[in-house]
Design goal:
1 helix, 4-stranded antiparallel beta sheet, alpha+beta, about 150 residues, 8 strands, elongated
């Protein structure tokens, strides 16, 4: 009688079990690092979005609107100072994400009614990862960059 050259059900089951263990070990080993990066990247995107929101609102309302950074409490606020100081929204960073540096004048990014803002940089960190968010004077553009660890 001729033997079939295929795998038996037992061999296939053992192979699948070994592969599942290897994949599980790899996923567990890298899961924390990826979650740190994702949380940081999401926080940077929210800040970038809020900066653009403040810029658009300054243009549409015809008054100065911006972001006030509070590194001590690890948060920022969307504010206006005209005709009176008013806070629209306060955003706190998630656990593990730190606002570690800002070069904005008086810890604020203020957009003029024509959409231009003061230039500066904000750096956020989570574990080994850092993100830099910059604003430019001309046009008030907002960009996000990953800071590569050395």
């Amino acid at each position: 009688m001729k033997k079939n050259g295929g795998l038996t059900l037992l061999e296939l089951t053992v192979t699948m079990a070994v592969l599942m263990v290897v994949v599980g070990v790899v996923l567990i080993g890298t899961r924390g690092d990826n979650n740190d990066y994702r949380a940081l990247h999401n926080a940077a995107l929210v800040l970038q979005s809020d900066l653009r929101y403040a810029q658009r609102r300054a243009v549409t309302e015809g008054r100065r609107i911006g972001i006030q950074f509070d590194p001590v409490n690890n948060r920022y606020s969307i504010i206006t100072i005209e005709p009176e100081f008013q806070t629209f929204r306060i955003v706190s960073f998630a656990d593990g994400i730190e606002l570690i540096h800002t070069t904005h004048q008086g810890e604020r990014v203020m957009y003029q009614p024509r959409g231009t803002g003061n230039p500066g940089t904000v750096i956020l960190r989570n574990g080994q990862h850092s993100q830099r968010i910059t604003t430019t004077l001309s046009g008030g553009q907002v960009r996000t960059y990953e800071i590569i660890s050395e």
